[in-house]
Amino acid sequence: MTDLLRRYFQLDKYGTTVRTEIVAGMTTFVTMAYIIFVNPAMLADAGMPREAAFAATIWAAAITMFFMGLWANMPVALAPGMGINAFFAYTVVLGMGLPWQTALGAVFISGIVFLVLSLTRLREVIIRSVPMNLKLAISVGVGVFIAFIGLKGAGIVVADPVTLVTLGHLGHAPTLLSLFGLLLMAALMTLRIRGAILIGMLITTVAGILVGAGPVPDGIGGIVSLDVPSFMPTFLKLDVMAAIEYGLISVLFTMTMVDLFDSMGTLIGVSRKAGLMDSRGEIRGLGKALIVDSCGTILSGLMGTPAVTSYVESSAGVADGGRTGLMAVTAGVLFLVSLVFAPLAGIVQSYSTAPALIMVGALMIQDIRGITFDDVSEGLPAFLTVITIPLTYSIATGFGIGFISYVLLKTITGRIREVSAVMWVVAFCFGINFALR
């Protein structure tokens, strides 16, 4: 078996071993396993059956990772994306009032669009046409949005009729538990402990049980069960026609662009760290990896979860020596094994998932260091993108305002040549969408 794996994944060519790749896959799984509990919790807020969402999250991630490892042979793990799931649950379903079936239809369509872009040169055209400042601003804005959702879920930020939001009651047990979980995760990450977010969530859950703030598991069966949940309640429940009838152009555009930019950024970063980028900047297997990513989005819509995307946590496995698709396959197998922990998903409460959201947001906001604020025509659109995503509770709105303000500022300051045709088209579409609201 070892010889078969070595030949199939070309381990000798990339200077690695079966043991190294498996250990790297285990490391990657531990660092990203928090999504197994966070994603179903967010989808439950959107009205989806929690157990089915748990199963769909795992199966969509595992299947896509097998595809990534066995076909693209890339050391990249995938799962439903943070940011996309927030957009799905809180903007499309709760914000726009659309059924989750319609939102899944939009996920499926965006996957088709992403696949077409990945198979053609349009992918490169779009990526090059969007200014780097706006790309970074999108990531930062999504990070702030996710953190805001976490603060709200923790009870640290609450609604106020006068100021819209205000500080919550920090003396409440769930809020104290969330603060404890956040500090614990931060301390573990500072100490460079793998799986800090997952460990923090689990310890916070136990602490909540001990103080009576969470449900007590019914013996070992309340934690582990061989009676694994089914994804059938959400499988093929997508409503593509409803998504088309609603004319969700801005939703589709946002889903596709977030997935495209997130995937490209992650794949480039992970490939550079793994030494898979040559002197010309070409990445081995990039085309296949993006096709896998887009197919994963299509699969997500079919199974019942927001789009699967490449995870930056893959870099943890790469740091442990992962260089091939065997790392991704290992992480996929571990995702399937985690199906037996389905009962635990019902025990993990919002006070445990909220600090995870805040921590992920804190990690995503680091991209703000790359934004150029010296040039106002670049800095203001970036700032508006970052600030309007959380304040309007909509990633799509932040996208639109950022793109429109960029085009207008460049035009009125006589720098219209810096605006690409793609930017004009996107800004025009968002402008029409805003006008018809």
Describe this structure in words.
- Helix 6 packs antiparallel against helix 13.
- A hairpin with a 3-residue loop joins strand 2 (157-160) and strand 3 (164-167).
- The protein is 66% helix and 3% strand.
- It has helices at residues 2-8, 18-32, 35-45, 50-72, 84-93, 100-119, 122-129, 132-154, 173-190, 196-210, 240-245, 249-274, 286-303, 314-319, 325-337, 342-347, 350-364, 376-391, 395-412, 421-435; strands at residues 78-80, 157-160, 164-167, 308-310.
- The chain has 20 helices and 4 strands.
- It has a two-stranded antiparallel ribbon. A two-stranded antiparallel ribbon has the order 2-3.
- By secondary structure, it is mainly alpha-helical.
- It is globular and about 65 Å long.
Q: Quick recap of the structure?
A:
The protein is mostly helical and 437 residues long.
Arithmetic mean pLDDT: 86
Global Rg:
21 Å
Strand order of the largest sheet: 1-4
Largest sheet, strands/sense/barrel: 2 strands, antiparallel
Number of strands: 4
β-strand amount: under 5%
What is the oligomer described by this structure? single chain
Secondary-structure element string: HHHHEHHHHEEHHHHHEHHHHHHH
Primary descriptors:
single chain, 437 residues, mainly alpha, two-stranded antiparallel sheet, two-stranded antiparallel ribbon, 20 helices, 66% helix, globular
